[in-house]
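Hello forum,

I keep getting stuck at the same step: I have a sequence, I want structure tokens, and every attempt I make locally crashes halfway through. Rather than fight my setup again tonight, could one of you with a working pipeline run this one for me? It's a single chain of 164 residues.
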Amino acid sequence: MTDVAAQLEALTARLQVLEDQAEIIRLIASYGPLVDAGCADEVGAIWTEDGVYDVDEMYMGSRADIVAMVNGEAHQGLIAKGSAHFLGPAAVNVDGDTAVAVCQSILMVHHKERFIPARAGIHHWELVRTADGWQTTRRTSRLLDGDLDTRALMAAGGKGERRG
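Reply #2:
Ran it on my machine without issues. Output:
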């Protein structure tokens, strides 16, 4: 292989990683607006059919469970009053057709003509490249309460390590 061919191959590989990271960042960033708008099917499409969403107080073991959560009475009541799920920048590590990302979030809720913080969380995402683009196989979300397991989850995500 010539030097030019090798350089082109290396650049192509680097570009693919950057495109993958950008797609994953867009996917994660879409969660907040979609879930606050109540777009259940679009939120569900962030996950694979058998994708898991594990939150402190709730475990959803499929895309259908996630769609049901968004359509559920508790979530619909939250967004009817006004809410904003802010997910911070995601640190994304791509390894071929799989990836790990981590980000923090703040949930703001409307209360008496102002917004107040209701929850601060950490989110560890495990993703896979599918025919439809990147999708989540597992998202683990924990309250930022100083718990050692939560801190380990943050560290794993920051290092690009899977936890599933």
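Strands lie at 47-55, 58-60, 83-87, 91-95, 98-111, 114-130, 133-143. If your local run keeps crashing, start a new thread with the error log.
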